[in-house]
Specification:
There is one protein chain. The protein is mainly α. The chain has two domains: about 50 residues; about 35 residues, no CATH class. About 80% of the residues lie in helices and about 0% in strands. It is built from three helices and no strands. The longest helix has about 55 residues. The chain is rod-shaped, with a radius of gyration of 40 Å. The relative contact order is 0.05.
Length: about 100
């Protein structure tokens, strides 16, 4: 009888080599990914810890923008013209706006 292929033992040996190589490669890939993700997790934890101390300040709404002094004086002028403000009150409010 004539043999055609490697036989049962040869086929089992080849399968073992292929499976061992695949296991080694997948283990190396898994270790590399674990190191990569561990570094990313550490960076994320640091950001979260740093953000927690700034979280209280960041959650407060920003102060409203300051009104334009020119617009404030125009409003005072209209109140003064309508008689709601006296000359002294108008002058004091205008000086306060202008910072003088």
């Amino acid at each position: 009888m004539m043999r055609r292929g490697p036989g049962l033992v040869g086929m089992a040996a080849r399968t073992a080599v292929v499976a061992g190589t695949a296991t080694a490669v997948s283990g190396r890939v898994a270790r590399r990914q674990q190191r990569k993700y561990a570094g990313q997790d550490a960076d994320y934890a640091e950001q979260v810890a740093g953000g927690a101390s700034q979280g209280a300040a960041a959650s407060e709404p920003p102060p409203p923008p300051a009104e334009d002094p020119f617009e404030q004086i125009e409003k005072l002028s209209k109140l003064h013209e309508s008689g709601a403000l006296t000359d002294e009150e108008f002058a004091a409010a205008k000086a306060k706006i202008l910072g003088t």
